[in-house]
Amino acid sequence: MLHVDVYSKHHCPLCDHGVEMMKELQKEIPFELSVIDIYEDDELLLKYQVMIPVVAVAEEEIDFGQLSKEKIRKRLLQIIG
């Protein structure tokens, strides 16, 4: 099954909205969702601190910041073929 990561942090309304949007997409497209707090990993904090939320599949960052549900949906559908 497809696995999607959302890089996020606590007390981030934009991140909370992104996670909710991904849960809505799960109703249409089957995938496992992990929400990863960038403050638990120094490398992730350095990489994503000004980009969050970030939606990624494997090593591909699909979208970040103001997330686009349509952009993410389109890319997930391309990935699952």
UniProtKB/TrEMBL annotation:
Organism: Alkalihalophilus lindianensis
Transmembrane portions of the chain: none
UniProt protein name: Glutaredoxin family protein
Pfam families tied to this protein: Glrx-like (PF05768)
InterPro entries the record matches: Glutaredoxin-like (IPR008554), Glutaredoxin-like_YDR286C (IPR052565), Thioredoxin-like_sf (IPR036249)
